Amino acid sequence: MDAPMPLPILNTFAGNPLDRAGELRSTDGWLEEQAANPEALAMVLWQGRPLIQDHADGPRLAWLSLAHATDLERDLDRRIFLGLWKDAPVFAVELDGAVDPASGPAQGLGAFTELREAAAVLSGSDAAMAGGAKSLFDWRRRHGFCANCGHRTETTCGGWKRVCPSCSAEHFPRVDPVTIMLPVFQDRCLLGRQAAWPAGRMSALAGFLEPGETIEEACAREIMEESGLTVTAVRYHSSQPWPFPSQLMIGLIARVSDANAAPDQTELEEVRWFTREDASAVLAGAHEIKAPPKTAIARTLIQAWVDGFDVEGSPASPNP
After folding, report:
1. d(CA 279, CA 166)
2. Angle, CA of 91, 58 and 199, to the nearest 5°
3. In this structure, are residues 270 and 202 in contact, taking their beta carbons and an 8 Å threshold?
4. How do beta strands 88-95 and 41-46 pair?
5. Are 59 and 52 in contact (CB under 8 A)?
6. DSSP conformational letter for 287
7. 315: exposed, middle or buried (Cβ count in 10 Å: 0-12, 13-18, 19+)
8. Whole-model pTM?
């Protein structure tokens, strides 16, 4: 039997190396044992920003002992179990307060860095762990009350579940699926621009799935709504966890029926077709249009199409 192919890690925030121990974290007493382990480590965040340290080989997440992190923030509801690194338990602790703790109790430990900025310089595994922690803390903040009866909920399972003590409803972290797609027609791809983006930036089209839709249907609807184009075929490329606050970006290449694109002027203010040569120049920074950041799956999709990723599943020949 052939060996299984390894899972590809193509996008920033993918590739979390931790064993989430999902079958263990709900076991009575197990999390308490992990927290008491002298080898327990903690990532520290403040306002969704991970604590980053500079090292000779580049920035890294700052890892503290769990005991040290707990000294900085004693509210156990602000602690989440992330998983196991080999046999060592790994937690995340979010510090409270309006004042940057790096100028107070966390002084000298590093700098709290906005995650988009941090992800551009951290290793893939560090970015993935930080992104997962940020999403869980964001979910905790948004779901402090039961959607069923309105009572305040309580944290269980190391932060992976909230339970209502009034009606016993259980609440789990939510992930919002988003289709993000590169429309293509013949030898060109379509990029769009939102008015709020930095000057000159264009990117792939995207939109949330709606109830009762398949991924393909959502892709077709969003492309029609935003550019007026009809989708005739869709091919999946890759996905990306996007912790702003907690989305799953489903990356697609979509063939459309014609080139008569027009922006809807609501989501997009401009759309433009690019040849592979033009798109390659955009990615290289040699074009008036600015590419999506390297941390975004949109850039991965553009690069894949430039490299010959085809809707039909076979390499497409770039223009001579």
Report:
1. 56
2. 95
3. yes
4. parallel
5. yes
6. S
7. exposed
8. 0.92
Report which DSSP code applies to 316.
P
**Residue 68 structure tokens:** 């040290």
Tell me, what's the pLDDT at 317? Answer: 38
Measured CA to CA, the distance from residue 146 to residue 102 in angstroms comes to 34
E-state strands within 125-199: 154-156, 161-163, 170-171, 176-185, 188-193
- Contact call for residues 133 and 43 (beta carbons, < 8 A): yes
Closest CA to 39 of 91, 79, 76: 91
Instruction: Provide the 10 A C-beta neighbour count for residue 280.
Output: 18
In this structure, how many other beta carbons lie within 10 angstroms of the beta carbon of residue 147? 10
The C-alpha angle 177, 188, 318, rounded to 5 degrees, equals 110
Question: pLDDT tens, 59-73?
Answer: 999 999 999 999 999
With tokens 């156990």, the residue in question is: 76
* Distance separating alpha carbons of residues 181 and 300, to the nearest angstrom: 11
What does the DSSP assignment read for 71-125? HH---GGGEEEEEEETTEEEEEEEE-SSS-GGGTTTTTS-EE--HHHHHTTS-HH
The phi, psi pair for 44, rounded to 5°, reads -120, 135
Q: Are strands 247-256 and 176-185 parallel, antiparallel or unpaired?
A: parallel
Label residue 5 by pLDDT band (50, 70, 90). low
**Structure tokens given for 29:** 């007493």
Respond yes or no on whether the N-terminal peptide bond of residue 245 is cis (omega within 30° of 0): yes
Report pLDDT for 10: 84
CA 98 remoteness from chain centre: 25
The answer to whether 163 touches 170, Cβ cutoff 8 Å, is: yes
Cβ distance 192 to 261 under 8 Å? no
